[in-house]
Fold this sequence. Notes:
The complex is a heterodimer.
Chain A: H1 5-44, H2 46-74
Chain B: E1 2-3, E2 8-9, H1 12-29, H2 34-43, H3 48-72, H4 78-105, H5 108-140, H6 153-159, E3 166-169, E4 174-178, H7 179-196, H8 201-212, H9 216-240, H10 246-266, H11 272-279, H12 281-294
Antiparallel strand pairs in B: 1-2, 3-4
Helix pairs in contact in B: 1-2, 1-3, 1-10, 2-3, 3-9, 3-10, 4-7, 4-9, 5-11, 5-12, 6-8, 7-8, 8-9
Amino acid sequence: MKGNPRSLLRNFILEMILYGVLVVAYFLAVLRFLGEPLMELYESSLPLYAVAALILIVAQGVVLEWVTSFLVNLLGLERLE
Amino acid sequence: MEFPISGVTVDPLLLVGIGFVVGVLGGFFGVGGGFLAGPLLFWTGVPINIVVGTDLAHMTGKSIVAAKRHRTLGHVDFRLGFIMVIGTVVGVEIGARLIEYLEVAGNVDRVVGVSYIVILLVISAFTAWESIRALNMIRTESLDVEDVLAFRGITQRMHGIRLPPMISFPQSGIESVSLWVVLGVGLIAGVLAGFLGVGGGFIRMPMLVYLVGMPTHVAVGTDLFEIVISAGFGTLTHALKGNVDILMALVMQTGAAVGAQIGAVSTRYFAGPRIRLAFSVLPLIGAILVIVRLLGLTGGGGIH
C-alpha cells in the first residue's frame, strides 16, 4: 500500500464527507428544480421519464464521483488506490 | 416527506439509512442487496411494484459507484464481465418464462419460495465450510497469500472443459477457459435470478470464485460491474411500467453511494476467505426473510 495508512484513512474520510455533501446537494437540486418536471413527465410520457430517471441515477454515480476526485486532487489529498 | 411520484410518505432519513447499509454490503460483497432493501422498503409502506423498480434504480447508481472504486483497486475484469452478461441476459429471460409457466400451473409462490430457500442455504453452508477450511489452510501452512481456495475440484473440472473457443482473462489470473463455461455461468446465474426474482449477485459471486476460479476480490468487483448493466436494464423496463420513483431512489442513493465506497475500500483489508466467510451470512439472512414471508408473518405475500 502506498503512503501512510493513517493519513490515507483520514483522506478517505475527508473524501467521503466531501462526496456525501455533494450527493445531498445533488438530490436537493434535483428535488428543487426537477421535482415538478419529473412528475409531469411521469404522468405524460413514461419512455421519456424512464430515460430521465436512468440519466439522473447514472449522473449521480459518475459525475459526482468525478467531481469529488477532481476536488480531492485539487486539495492535494492522496487517494486510497 | 411525501414522494409525489409514488404518492408515498416516508422518512427520508430512514431511506438514507437503508441505502447506507445496503451500500456497504454491496461494495464489500459485490451484491445488489435487493434481498434486504426490498423487504425493508416494503416494510416502510412503499407499494411492492414501486419497491422493485426503485430498488433497481438505486442499485444501478450504487453499483456504478462501487464498481468504479473497485476498478481503481484493480478488482474488475471487464472482459469477463462483458462476455458473462450475454449469458445472464438470456438466462434471466428463461427464468422469467419459467415463472410464467409456473403461474399458469399454479403454486408459483411455494415452488419459487422453497427453491429460493434451498439454494440460499446450500450457498451459505458451502461458502462457510470452504472459507473456514481455506482460513485453516492459511494458518496451518503459514501461507502468505491474499486469497486461497480450499476446494478447487469444481474449478479444475470447469477448466478441463476444452470446448473452443478458449480464452484467457489475465486480470483474473485465468490462463485458459472455454468461452462456454463463462457464458454458462452467466446463464445459470441469470436463470436463477429471473426465476427467483432477484438481482443474482449472491449467486453469481460464489459461482465466479468456485466455478470460474476468479480471486474473490475480482469476483466482487466484476459482479458489481455486471449488476450495473443488469440493474440499469431493469430500471429502464420498470420505469417504462411506472414502477420507479426516481426521487426516492436518489434519496436512498445518498446513503448507498457513500456506503458502497466504504464497503469497496474495506475489501482491501480482508483476505479472500474472510470475505467469503462473512458473505456466507448474507444468503442465510435472505433465506430467513423468505421463510418469514412464506409463513405470512409480515403479511407481505409471497416472493413475487
